[in-house]
Amino acid sequence: MSGHAEVKVKIPFGNKYLDAIFSVPEKKSTYGVILTHGAGGDMNFPHLLSLATYLASRGVLCLRFTCKGLNVAYRTKAFKTVVEYLKLSDDYKLYGVFLAGRSMGSRAAASLIRQLSQNDDDDDDDDFIRGLICLSYPLHRPKLQSKLRDEDLLFISCPVLFVSGSADEMCEKQLLEGVASKMKAPKKIHWIDKANHGMAVKGRTTDDVMEEINAQVFSWLKENVELEHK
């Protein structure tokens, strides 16, 4: 484990800018993770900050960004802008990135991956994006299990990691397992025992829960990057 540097950037988006922060490992990184927040909060939401710090100190470049707005299409467009920004960056030449989001941020990431996979002219974008990390994916509204937000997940073919609480009021365990069984993508679900949508668990500290989430994300990333280099 080693240290890392934080670099603030402003990414042009339409006629405004998205605030973003790179967590840069000491050694040159070949893979990166782009992270964004849920419907509330911003890029400094404690879970994102914790994950970015954990990954960067283990050699994975992270870029987290803020995009306020409750419209998934708008959030998806912002995510695409950030992916393109990183892809064209001269400072960080990466082989590929993994898209990660918390709650609504993971919906935007899934929506973008589906869009790109359906655009034949964006083939190289497709190669650049190596996987999807969904933290507390909001599969349905609370108490509205009849309407599942699974349309993007079923069309994705890159590897997907879900980290969800077994007591998440927006992601019933059996329902996510049912969706996962229909997905064509290689997928893994890690359940945080008794955690709610905000990943709070009675009797456990936030740091303790974050340590579990971070370790799961890192080991899954390692597995997927190693698979590609065999």
Automatic annotation (TrEMBL):
InterPro entries referenced in this protein's UniProt entry, alphabetically: AB_hydrolase_fold, KANL3/Tex30_Abhydrolase, NSL3/Tex30
Record domain KANL3/Tex30 alpha/beta hydrolase-like: where: 33-220
A Pfam family reported for this protein in Swiss-Prot or TrEMBL: Abhydrolase_11
Gene3D superfamilies: alpha/beta hydrolase (3.40.50.1820)
Protein name (database record): Testis-expressed sequence 30 protein
Organism (species): Lepidothrix coronata (blue-crowned manakin)
Name of the gene this protein is made from: TEX30
